Amino acid sequence: MAPPASPPLLTHACSSPPSILCSTSSSSSKSRNSYKVLSSSFTSLSCSTPILFPYLQLSHCSKPPVLGIHGKLNPRRRFSLRLRPRLRLLSSRLKRTSLRDLVEDLGVALRRNSRIITLSASMSAVLGFCFLFLKLTAVPASKVVPYSELVTELQSGHVTAVMFEEGSRRIFYNTRGDGRENGETVVDGEALAMEGRKEKEKSGFVLKWKYSTRKIDHDENYLLSLMREKGVAYSSAPQSVIMTLRSLLITVISLWIPLTPLMWLLYRQLSAANGPAKKRRPSNQKVRFDDVEGVDAAKEELMEIVSCLQGSINYKKLGAKLPRGVLLVGPPGTGKTLLARSVAGEAGVPFFSVSASEFVELFVGRGAARIRDLFSVAKKCSPSIVFIDELDAVGGKRGRSFNDERDQTLNQLLTEMDGFESDTKVIVIAATNRPEALDPALCRPGRFSRKVLVGEPDLDGRKRILAVHLRGVPLEENPEIICNLVASLTPGFVGADLANIVNEAALLAARRGGETVIREDVMEAIERAKFGINDRQFTRNVVRKGLDKLFPWIPSLIKRDGTTEDGLGFLGYQTLS
Ligand SMILES: Nc1ncnc2c1ncn2[C@@H]1O[C@H](COP(=O)(O)OP(=O)(O)OP(=O)(O)O)[C@@H](O)[C@H]1O
């Protein structure tokens, strides 16, 4: 017999690397075909320069290579648990961590989660106690039989004693043959009790009644007459206290276990609303009027309120009242929130800032309770300012939907704003982008009587807003020149957009590794703000440049006006001009 040929060494004679055919098709026939091509191409390879595929390990492999996912060649993977390196890693980790560290970590974790641990421990204790109680009071249950069997046994005279359980429909009974299995003749309840005692010795419990069945309505008279006729001893007894407790416990547990997730959700909702972490605390604002620019009219209106709060305008002398609410209306990003903050910062009073969506709750009455809570704290800290952002979330017209909770929240807000006494210095500032969606009751005099429009800034406004945001940014050029340049290029931009441009320019400069922000950074930031990131403008020039690179012979065919020698456009279309 010829000796077996040694497996061919995988070599390659061509200058280019061997192309491995991949089959991405899921069809088995296709992958089988590609597998054939692969194996044939691999076996037929023979060349002078060997190219070894260490990752394939094919040179010593007599078996065909295995196709993996996407038809790529994979090494044949041997299943191994790699236990040795894993154990080595585990032992090295165990060596690094000392027992003391472990104990300390455990202590920290216990301290951190003390509430959860206490709760789980008490829950486990209660459940354990219930389980123990059920286990201790468990008695072997009587065999449940149909009612007809009781009647048959009575008629045949086998029944020795019957007991009616009070307060339930159950009937227990014993029959004459019950004791015969043990070689005794049990003829009555007492004998059966004796047998029960024996069983107790065996199992620890007394089985007093062997059979039980459910009573059938309106059949009691027949049953009683049958028992009297056959001379059967019958009685009635209340359910034992332990059994009553047992059934009560089982009912409670079987009800509460499915209800626990719901109760947990409810608890979380309520605790989120009432928890001490959520208690309102005023914040001290550092924003000043100097930080808000381009909204002069709105600023003036609010400055007056600040003067009233500080007492520099004696409005009471002329019988005037402090406005209770100021509604800031305007497009997004124009600085409404910033203005409200600056009012608090200037007046130096506690500032309570909330978003109206915080009052949107799942449970009816929770949103109203939160409003009540907020205003009671604000009144305690008076003089103070309450700022409600996005007022339309709760201040929408009432009766438009079936959302009773939202209507109740709004009613509470209206009541709270009415309830300020004339000398309570609590001012409610609200902001909205959709004043038309608000309930008319909110905007009536006495509530949000003052409506301040915070509009888009004009050229001068944009310059001043830019100056505010460029304050802390190192610029290569004069900030004024940059402000003028950017403001002229950004008509329709609001304060938030301008703040974003400045920030983007600084980020671009940082990416470049520059020390200062240069004009190019600012221009690119404007481009990004206007057209988005990487949004290249496909102008005619850009297209032409791209085509020039790809097809250098095209320009010779195209005239300056973009038409070809034969009057066609450079892509072969006839131009209409
Ligand atoms: N007039 C402005 N002067 C200076 N900075 C401004 C001005 N307007 C907006 N900004 C900048 O834009 C950011 C966002 O503004 P703000 O949150 O006050 O807008 P808004 O009108 O309340 O928007 P929204 O209606 O979406 O809540 C501010 O933190 C500030 O940096």
Layout of secondary structure:
Layout: H1 28-44, E1 66-67, E2 73-74, H2 83-96, H3 99-112, H4 114-136, E3 143-144, H5 147-156, E4 159-166, E5 170-175, H6 189-203, E6 211-214, H7 220-230, E7 233-238, H8 241-274, H9 296-310, E8 325-329, H10 336-347, E9 351-355, H11 366-380, E10 384-389, H12 392-395, H13 404-418, E11 426-432, H14 440-443, E12 450-453, H15 459-469, H16 479-489, H17 495-512, H18 519-531, H19 540-550, H20 554-557
Parallel strand pairs: 3-6, 4-7, 8-11, 8-12, 9-10, 10-11
Antiparallel strand pairs: 1-2, 4-5, 5-6
Helix pairs in contact: 9-10, 11-13, 15-16, 15-17, 17-18
Adenosine-5'-triphosphate (ATP) binds at residues 292-295, 332-338, 389, 431, 433, 465, 468, 495-496, 499.
